[in-house]
């Protein structure tokens, strides 16, 4: 298929792994943050909302640089994690996943938050009069009713992660086999005289993956819709 | 026996209500906007009173003097809302079973069968709430509140969203509920005709205050919307 060279396959495989891991790891945090912003009033909420959305408006290179100085080997969080837990982000694919997750996070939170805000709170009240404590109200009413938003948010986050370039390359560089995603590989191939064919092949792969993600999300959303509201 | 003595400010509107509800059906009767639903929400634990006491069967649920405030999910009152509020993502059967599951009560097929028969909703069990008529939805809502085995039923205008034919359809079920199941009820309505059929005690509420407690004589006589 597509006649990709082994190097190109490595970039495709790496991109998918990074995007999937970034989306799945961001998901529980995204749901918690969306619920907090949709349902709770607290001091500093506007500030928190702003920080969550920051990666959306900041130049990606700035986000990448901030990740580098905080999660890098000498960064205050990075050095702690490396010493205490042995988790290293800098110049590893895990760092690329972190960068992609951070960049996709605001899109994830936005979609889920809108979905939670659209849920009639009276249904949550009804659940509590029927004996459901707050955790069960969330698990049996709020969460299932926000599934369409969760699917939409995951697709957006996955797409963002797949296309992420600036923050990733700033934070973890462009190392073939470790941090070189499809986007970074395409960029690299366009910088060398004989790279046009390789770049073209990867462009086609990127289009195909994006289309598959889009179709899958449409299908999932329709499936969830019928599950939620009956035939 | 339920004892209610609550005060609550909601913007410009003030509620100060005190009454007792014995067995049978106690009606909160009064015009729309008199604060009846807010009073019921305070009983259910969905709104916190500014001051006062709510005591059910000797157990204090709320007391502003001691700071006691039992959360809604521990109050064991079945609440039938005006708009049904069935969970749209669950089948009718799952809606009916919800209160039992949340309260961790054992399954009771006989009880389920009895209530399903009483409300005549057996043919709806596999459907989703979105596919029910207004009358069917309210019957399921009543069943759901009953199956959590409440100490008391709170019914907030349970017939208000229905046309006259559907009201006539549901009222007999409510009467059977009162007489056969012997569950005490707080029944909110502004329709004298409805209350004449079901209420055993009338608590008249006007502009946030209780202005009379007594029998059917408190219901205005000039109503034109008899059932």
Please give the CATH class of chain B.
Alpha Beta
- The CATH topology of chain A is given as MetI-like fold
CATH fold name of chain B: Rossmann fold
Q: What does the main sheet of chain B amount to?
A: 6 strands, mixed
Q: Helices and strands of chain B, in N-to-C order?
A: EEEHEEEEHHHEHEHEE
**β-sheet strand percentage of chain B:** 25-35%
Structural Rg of chain B:
17 Å
Q: Architecture of chain B in CATH?
A: 3-Layer(aba) Sandwich
* Count of individual domains of chain B: 1
**Could you name the CATH class of chain A?**
Mainly Alpha
- How would the global form of chain A be characterised? globular
Q: Uncertain regions of chain A: pLDDT < 50 for 5+ in a row? A: none
Largest sheet of chain A: none
Percentage of residues in strands of chain A: under 5%
Rg from Cα of chain A: 20 Å
Overall number of strands of chain B: 11
Question: How confident is the prediction overall: mean pLDDT of chain B?
Answer: 88
CATH hierarchy: architecture of chain A: Orthogonal Bundle
CATH superfamily of chain B: P-loop containing nucleotide triphosphate hydrolases
Task: Produce the secondary structure layout.
The complex is a heterodimer of chains A (231) and B (227).
Chain A: H1 6-39, H2 45-57, H3 60-71, H4 76-84, H5 93-117, H6 121-129, H7 134-145, H8 147-163, H9 166-172, H10 182-190, H11 196-229
Chain B: E1 2-10, E2 13-21, E3 25-29, H1 36-44, E4 51-56, E5 59-63, E6 68-69, E7 77-80, H2 92-102, H3 109-119, H4 134-147, E8 152-156, H5 164-181, E9 185-189, H6 192-198, E10 201-206, E11 209-214
Parallel strand pairs in B: 3-9, 3-10, 7-8, 8-9
Antiparallel strand pairs in B: 1-2, 1-4, 4-5, 5-6, 10-11
């Amino acid at each position: 298929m597509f006649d990709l060279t082994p190097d190109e396959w490595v970039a495709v495989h790496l991109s998918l792994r990074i995007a999937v891991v970034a989306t799945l790891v961001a998901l529980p945090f995204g749901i918690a943050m969306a619920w907090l912003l949709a349902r709770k009033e607290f001091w500093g909420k506007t500030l928190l909302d702003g920080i969550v959305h920051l990666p959306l408006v900041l130049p990606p290179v700035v986000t990448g640089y901030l990740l580098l100085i905080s999660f890098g080997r000498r960064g205050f969080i990075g050095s702690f994690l490396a010493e205490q837990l042995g988790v290293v982000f800098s110049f590893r694919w895990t760092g690329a996943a972190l960068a992609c997750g951070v960049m996709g996070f605001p899109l994830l939170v936005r979609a889920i938050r809108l979905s939670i805000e659209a849920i009639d709170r009276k249904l949550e009240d009804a659940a509590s009069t029927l004996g459901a404590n707050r955790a069960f109200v969330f698990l049996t009413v709020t969460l299932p009713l926000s599934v369409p938003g969760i699917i939409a948010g995951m697709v957006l986050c996955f797409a963002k992660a797949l296309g992420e370039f600036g923050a990733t390359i700033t934070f973890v560089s462009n190392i073939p086999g470790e941090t070189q995603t499809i986007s970074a590989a395409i960029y690299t191939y366009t910088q060398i005289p004989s790279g046009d064919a390789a770049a073209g092949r990867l462009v086609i792969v990127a289009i195909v993956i994006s289309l598959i993600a889009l179709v899958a999300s449409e299908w999932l959303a329709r499936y969830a819709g019928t599950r939620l509201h009956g035939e | 026996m339920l004892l209610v003595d609550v005060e609550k400010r909601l913007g410009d509107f003030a509620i100060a209500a005190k009454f007792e509800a014995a067995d049978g059906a106690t009606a909160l009767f009064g015009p729309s906007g008199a604060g009846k639903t807010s009073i019921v929400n305070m009983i259910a634990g969905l709104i916190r009173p500014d001051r006062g006491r709510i005591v059910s069967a000797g157990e204090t649920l709320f007391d502003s003097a001691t700071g006691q405030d039992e959360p809604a999910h521990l109050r064991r009152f079945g609440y039938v809302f005006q708009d049904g509020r069935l969970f749209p993502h669950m089948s009718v059967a799952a809606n009916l079973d919800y209160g039992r599951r949340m309260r961790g009560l054992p399954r009771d097929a006989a009880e389920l069968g009895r209530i399903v028969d009483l409300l005549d909703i057996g043919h709806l069990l596999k459907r989703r709430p979105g596919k029910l008529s207004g009358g069917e939805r309210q019957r399921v809502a009543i069943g759901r509140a009953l199956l959590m085995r409440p100490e008391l039923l709170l019914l907030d205008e349970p017939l208000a969203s229905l046309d006259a034919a559907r009201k006539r359809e549901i009222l007999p079920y409510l009467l059977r509920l009162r007489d056969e199941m012997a569950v005490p009820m707080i029944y909110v309505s502004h329709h004298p005709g409805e209350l004449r059929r079901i209420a055993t005690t009338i608590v008249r509420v006007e502009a946030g205050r209780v202005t009379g407690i007594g029998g059917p004589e408190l219901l205005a006589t000039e109503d034109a919307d008899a059932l």
